[in-house]
Write a structure and sequence with these properties.
Length: about 210
C-alpha cells in the first residue's frame, strides 16, 4: 500500500471512528458504569467484531451478505433487539451513593464486557455494507491482498481503540461527578435513551438495493 493511500485511509478511519454510533454509546456507558480500566474491555470486543467484519469483506462473503435480504434483516433485527436490551439494563442499573465509602461499585466481568462490545459491533449490518463499499477503494488488486487487508485492519483497530479510549475515559470522569443516586439514575436513563435511539436508527436501515 502506497504511503499516500494509507494516509488517506488513516484520515478516513478517524472520521469513521469519531462519528457517534452504537459503539461510542456502548463505550461511554461502560465507562460511566465501571470506570475506565474495566469499561475499556468493551472496546476490545468492538475491535474483535471489527476484525471479523474486515475478514468477511476480504474473503468475499461481505458481498453475499450485503445482497441477501434475509441475512441482512436477521443481523439488523438482532442488533435492534440487543440495543433495546442494553437500554433496559442501563435504565434498571442500580445507583449507589458515592459519598458512602462502604458502597460497592459494580466491577464488571472482562469477558462479559468483551462480549457486549462484540455483539454491538457485529450486529450492525450497515457497518459490513459500508466497509464493502469503502475498503476496495484503498486496495490495489495488483498487490498482495493479505498484506493490504492486514494494514487496513491494524490501522482501523489502532484508531478505534484510541477513539473509544477517549469516549470511555470521558464517561469515567463524569462518573466521579455523579455523587448521588439521583444523579446516577438520571445519567443511566439518558444513556438508556441513547441506546433506544441507536436501535431506532438501526431499524430504519435498509439494503442499498431496497
Amino acid at each position: 500500500m502506497l504511503l499516500e493511500t494509507w494516509l488517506a485511509f488513516f484520515a478516513a478511519c478517524w472520521v469513521i471512528s469519531l462519528s457517534p454510533g452504537a459503539g461510542a454509546i456502548a463505550s461511554m456507558s461502560c465507562g460511566l458504569r465501571y470506570g475506565f480500566w474495566r469499561g475499556y474491555w468493551n472496546a476490545l470486543g468492538l475491535q474483535i467484531a471489527l476484525v471479523l467484519q474486515i475478514a468477511i469483506v476480504a474473503a468475499g462473503l461481505g458481498a453475499v451478505l450485503a445482497t441477501s435480504a434475509l441475512a441482512f434483516s436477521l443481523i439488523k433485527w438482532f442488533g435492534v433487539l440487543y440495543l433495546v436490551y442494553l437500554a433496559v439494563k442501563q435504565w434498571r442499573a442500580l445507583a449507589i451513593d458515592m459519598a458512602d465509602h462502604d458502597a460497592v461499585r459494580p466491577i464488571g466481568r472482562p469477558l462479559s464486557l468483551i462480549m457486549r462490545g462484540f455483539l454491538v459491533n457485529i450486529s450492525n449490518p450497515k457497518a459490513l455494507v459500508f466497509m464493502l463499499a469503502i475498503l476496495p477503494q484503498f486496495i490495489n488488486p495488483l498487490q498482495p491482498l493479505l498484506a493490504q487487508y492486514l494494514i487496513i485492519a491494524l490501522t482501523m483497530v489502532a484508531v478505534d481503540l484510541t477513539v473509544m479510549a477517549g469516549y470511555t475515559g470521558l464517561a469515567s470522569r463524569v462518573l466521579r461527578l455523579l455523587r448521588t443516586p439521583k444523579q446516577q439514575r438520571q445519567m443511566n436513563r439518558t444513556f438508556a435513551g441513547l441506546f433506544v435511539g441507536a436501535a431506532a436508527f438501526l431499524a430504519t436501515i435498509h439494503r442499498a438495493a431496497d
